[in-house]
Automatic annotation (TrEMBL):
It comes from the Bacteria. It is an enzyme of class 2 (transferase). The chain crosses the membrane at residues 191-208, 220-236, 271-292, 298-317, 338-357, 363-381, 412-430. InterPro entries: PC_trans. This is Phosphatidate cytidylyltransferase. Keywords: Cell membrane, Lipid biosynthesis, Lipid metabolism, Membrane, Nucleotidyltransferase, Phospholipid biosynthesis, Phospholipid metabolism, Transferase, Transmembrane, Transmembrane helix. The lineage of its organism: Bacteria, Bacillati, Actinomycetota, Actinomycetes, Micromonosporales. GO terms for cellular component: plasma membrane. Residues 1-162 are annotated as: Disordered. GO terms for biological process: CDP-diacylglycerol biosynthetic process. It catalyses: a 1,2-diacyl-sn-glycero-3-phosphate + CTP + H(+) = a CDP-1,2-diacyl-sn-glycerol + diphosphate. Residues 58-103, 127-136 have a biased composition (Basic and acidic residues). It is found in: Cell membrane. It is a multi-pass membrane protein.
Length: 431
């Protein structure tokens, strides 16, 4: 039995209902209601000139024609409520079909800004290799195991001094170099000549290697050969032969370099001339000191002692009292306090040594020590300026704790010409 129609119609509802429902009591008789049973009437309702066309509805099992979401036909999204149904009350999602994510009106939600999220309550993100910080350790103190070695900062396991060098290695290498010089100097003088020639050859190699960083390529073979020649000429023939050896070395280097073409010739020849004057020519005065008859080994000893006292006094005074930089743009570690320590130590030591060795008044020995100390400091600053211009820290790494051999010869190369001239005045050469 069919139930009566709630709108007052007499026709039954359900399976006995005809396909087209009867007309309902609408306000306007000419307009039929729209709904799932009358699609044509719904199209006529929106067929006015000011109304936008409304597409027909489809069942949930019909193929999708909407190019925007693929779930419905071409309908306006404003005609769909939040659960995916048309506003006419008919749900086309099908029975048991859950609502889609794109059916949710997310545009109605307020945007979330970055400053609305309290990020301060989250713990900081650490790198995978970063260890846990000890809460008991002060915040300004470095965690253990985080220090890395570099060229300017040695590793934690190395013993370094305030001056930035490995002090035990520097002392050991210094003692070895001293023995290498003093043993042949007192027992077999020609062997000392071989030591000087070998040191000059190594110094030329280090200088040529360093200046290549600036783009210059001085020929190494004629420089080393000319350096050894200058040492021999100074030993056997005196200062005039040393000057002649310098001229021959520069000319030989020029001829050798011409074989490589004109490109960069002036630059390479300038670098070669600098090396020839700086290393073998100045080093030749050590051979002149040793070639003095009867007391040549004592002259070399007095010069080396004055240089060692200057370096040691400057190092001790600079580490203990150094506060005023002497030449910060060239050598930041040198201070005026260290320079005063160098001059004082060399003056006192040379006054006693010259008096004992050559029977010269102590004040002449003190003057000798001051002059040698000033020359040694200038030589050190000169090489520091060259290294800074070339962008190198050390000439090489041949000597642990010292760098290269030229890092130790820089003071001696400027000191030996000064000592040779002063001793020639204070202690005239007999014969």
């Amino acid at each position: 039995m069919s139930h009566p129609d709630p709108y007052g119609g007499a026709e039954p509802r359900g399976w006995d209902r005809p396909e087209r429902p009867p007309a309902l009591p609408w306000p306007e008789r000419d307009v039929e209601p729209t709904g799932p049973w009358n699609r044509q009437s719904g199209a006529d309702l929106y067929a006015g000139p000011q109304a936008r066309p409304r597409p027909t509805a489809r069942r949930y099992d019909e193929p999708a024609l909407d190019p925007y979401d693929g779930h419905g036909d071409r309908y306006d999204r404003h005609d769909v409520d939040r659960y995916g149904a048309y506003d006419d009350g008919y749900d086309r999602r099908g029975p048991g079909r859950p609502p889609r994510d794109d059916d949710m009106p997310t545009s109605a939600l307020p945007p979330v800004r970055d400053d609305d999220v309290p990020t301060s309550q989250f713990p900081p993100v650490r790198e995978p290799s970063e260890p846990e910080r000890d809460p008991q350790r002060p915040p300004g103190r470095r965690q253990p195991g985080r220090r890395r070695a570099s060229a300017d900062r040695p590793a934690t396991g190395q013993a370094s001094s305030r001056a930035g060098r490995n002090l035990p290695a520097a002392i050991g290498v210094g003692l070895g170099l001293g023995a290498l010089i003093l043993i042949p100097l007192f027992f077999y003088l020609p062997a000392f000549l071989a030591v000087v020639a070998g040191a000059v050859g190594v110094g030329i190699w280090e200088m040529a290697r360093a200046v290549r960083r600036s783009g210059a390529h001085p020929p190494l073979v004629p420089l080393i050969a000319g350096g050894v020649l200058m040492i021999g000429l100074a030993w056997y023939a005196g200062p005039d032969a040393l000057s002649l050896g310098l001229l021959v070395t520069v000319l030989g280097t020029m001829i050798w370099r011409l074989g490589d073409g004109p490109g960069g010739f002036q630059r390479d020849l300038t670098a070669a001339t600098l090396i020839a004057v700086y290393v073998p020519f100045l080093g030749g005065f050590a051979a002149l000191l040793a070639a003095a008859p009867d007391d040549g080994h004592l002259r070399v000893l007095a010069t080396l002692v004055a240089v060692v006292l200057s370096d040691t006094g400057g190092y001790a005074a600079g580490v203990s009292f150094g506060k005023h930089p002497m030449a910060p743009s060239i050598s930041p570690k040198k201070s005026w306090e260290g320079f005063a320590g160098s001059v004082s130590a060399a003056a006192v030591g040379s006054a006693v040594l010259i008096w004992q060795l050559f029977d010269v008044a102590p004040w002449w020995g003190a003057l000798f020590g001051v002059a040698v100390s000033v020359a040694a400091v200038l030589g050190d600053l000169g090489e520091s300026m060259i290294k800074r211009d070339l962008g190198v820290k050390d000439m090489s790494n041949l000597l642990p704790g010292h760098g290269g051999l030229m890092d130790r010869l820089d003071s001696i190369l400027f000191a030996v010409p000064t000592a040779y001239l002063l001793l020639a005045v204070f202690v005239p050469v007999v014969g």
